[in-house]
Write a structure and sequence with these properties.
With 241 residues, the protein is of the alpha+beta class. The protein has 7 helices and 10 strands.
C-alpha cells in the first residue's frame, strides 16, 4: 500500500492511500466539529457547483475522521479565470438556509480577531511599522454592508485544483460559514486575477481580508510554538502593510 502524508494543515492531518483515497483526521475537538459541519454541507452543495468537491465515502464520529476519493489536480496559478468565477457565482448563490452552519456576528468576530492580533502580533512589529498595523486593525470596523452568503473562507492555490487548464475541484471546506463573500475573493483578486471587473466595495473588503491573512499565520505560530510560521507570517504581513 502506498502512503503519503500531509502534516502541514492547521486543523487536520491528511494521509493519501494508494494515490486514490484521502484520510482526513482532525487534530482537536474544534476541528472535529468543523468536520461534522462539512459532512452536513458537502452532499447538499455538490450538485450546485460546477466543480468536484469531496464526497465522504466514510465518516466516523469516534474516533473522528473521514475518507473520500482523491480529487486530482494541481494548485491553481493563473488558470481558468472564467471557471473560477463560475464557481464563485454558484457558491455564493447557494441557499444554505436549511443547513447547520456557523453564522457568526461578522463584525463582532472580526473585532475579536483584531483584539487578539493587537495583543500578540502587533508587538512583534518594528516601532515604525506599528502605526500602519494599528491603522489596518481599525479597518475591521468597515467590514459591513454586505449580504451574508455561504463562503468557503480559505480559497488559496492549494485548495483550488486544476486539471488540463480548468478548475476541476475545490477542497478543504472546514472553514465554510455564512459570511462576507468578499473573503473568498481575497487571494484571487490580489494574486492570480487582479484585473477582474468587480464591485469597488467588494474589492476593498477583499483587499482587507488578504492583508489580514498573515496575521492569522503569526498568531497560529505563536499559539502552537512553531517559529517558522511566525517568521514567514511576519514576512508576508510586512509585505502587505
Amino acid at each position: 500500500m502506498g502512503l503519503r502524508e500531509n502534516d502541514d494543515g492547521w486543523d487536520f492531518k491528511v494521509l493519501i492511500l494508494d494515490d486514490e483515497w484521502v484520510l482526513r483526521i482532525p487534530r482537536n475537538e474544534p476541528a472535529a466539529a468543523k468536520l461534522a459541519t462539512e459532512a452536513g454541507l458537502l452532499p447538499a452543495l455538490a450538485p450546485a457547483l460546477p466543480v468536484e468537491i469531496p464526497r465522504f465515502e466514510h465518516a466516523s464520529r469516534e474516533p473522528p475522521f473521514v475518507v473520500y476519493r482523491l480529487i486530482r489536480g494541481e494548485p491553481l496559478r493563473h488558470d481558468d479565470p472564467d471557471g473560477v468565477r463560475a464557481f464563485l457565482a454558484a457558491l455564493h448563490a447557494f441557499d444554505a438556509s436549511g443547513i447547520d452552519l456557523p453564522r457568526p456576528d461578522w463584525l463582532e468576530a472580526w473585532r475579536e480577531n483584531a483584539a487578539r492580533f493587537r495583543d500578540v502580533v502587533l508587538p512583534l512589529l518594528e516601532p515604525g511599522e506599528r502605526s500602519r498595523g494599528e491603522a489596518l486593525l481599525q479597518e475591521v470596523e468597515t467590514l459591513v454592508g454586505f449580504e451574508p452568503r455561504l463562503t468557503h473562507c480559505d480559497l488559496e492555490a492549494c485548495h483550488l485544483l486544476v486539471r488540463d487548464g480548468r478548475l476541476a475541484g475545490v477542497i478543504d471546506w472546514a472553514g465554510a460559514r455564512i459570511g462576507d463573500p468578499a473573503l473568498d475573493y481575497g487571494w484571487l483578486l490580489n494574486d492570480p486575477f487582479p484585473d477582474w471587473d468587480v464591485d469597488d466595495e467588494l474589492r476593498r473588503r477583499a483587499s482587507l481580508y488578504y492583508r489580514f491573512g498573515p496575521w492569522f499565520a503569526v498568531e497560529y505560530g505563536l499559539r502552537t510554538n512553531q517559529p517558522e510560521w511566525v517568521r514567514s507570517g511576519l514576512e508576508n504581513l510586512r509585505s502587505r502593510l
